[in-house]
Design a protein that fits this description.
- This protein is mostly helical.
- The chain has 4 helices and no strands.
- Helix content is about 60%, strand content about 0%.
- Helix 1 packs across helix 4.
- The termini are close together.
């Protein structure tokens, strides 16, 4: 993944395919917990799926701070672009 757009596309695919979220609801501003109805178990599953597609270990402490889709995109992009 070379761009934030690619990260967003991959994240959107995961949210639609694995969490059955309507693609129209997934925007960069969408809150993961309030608008997309993810819970803490879903967040853990999401971290595992992101680790699988990036090949990078995602620290749980970092992910505790994310609230929006944009936050996830930023964190994943920073992780993959650092390596």
């Amino acid at each position: 993944m070379k761009s934030k757009e690619e990260v967003f596309t991959a994240l959107k695919t995961i949210l639609v395919d694995d969490f059955e979220i309507d693609a129209d609801e997934i925007t960069l501003e969408a809150n993961l917990y309030e608008e997309l109805d993810l819970d803490s178990i879903d967040a853990v599953d999401l971290v595992v799926k992101l680790r699988d597609i990036t090949g990078q270990k995602i620290e749980p402490e970092i992910f505790k701070q994310v609230r929006t889709v944009q936050n996830v995109v930023d964190e994943v992009y920073a992780l993959v672009s650092a390596n």
